[in-house]
What does this fold into?
Amino acid sequence: MNQFYGRGVDFFEREWVKEQRGYYVNEFKYQLENTNPLLPSTTTFNVDQGKGFMRITAEHEHKFAYGKYDKGIYLRLFAGWLPYYDDADAYVPFLFNGITSTGYFSKDYVYDELLFGRNEQSGLLSQQVFLRDAQLKTLYNGGIAENWLTSVGVSADVPGPVPFQLYVDAAVYDDPIDEGVTISYSAGVSIVVLKDAFEVYIPLLESNDIRNSLTYEDRNFLQRISFLLDLNKIAPRRIKDGFFEQ
It folds into this structure.
């Protein structure tokens, strides 16, 4: 990966310089799938390695189907460990989710997401998220773990022909700032236009660390609503190839 970013020189004078750096990531991925229509599941093991880091993750997703409208309850378990992390060029700490990047702190360090506002800090495009690590559906930009993180998420379709889900996600992690184990959570209602591809998240209940952050101080309720738009899930190869050909 080659990355261009702005490094601040003088905050008050708004002076910055444009810099560039490059890094590599070796990835090993192993996935198991159960295609039972009533109890489909996916288990994924992933190891990323590069200069200054090794990142190991395990993820399990399970659906308990019900109803004639293909409704279901969805369970997700995640565990991540950084056995080695020392002056890495890639920004690989475990995060609550994937949100917009700041400077060289790219939340999508392998650049495999199609994001319309990758570096936007305000406006609608800054409210886009992508599913990563703990997958808390919030715009909170804290929740950084440089050692380990585990999480659990449950979502349930509202019965009937309506595109709504109730969700709750929680993360337990080794907080490098407070130097202790921290628990964070986010819960609310989502509008599911296309499962895992186009969804809107309305947070209704969140932990103190999220409520007391700049996410709440600088944004009103509407500005705290996030959305997922994963073009790879809508038409993976056709859309992605089309973007790179132009």
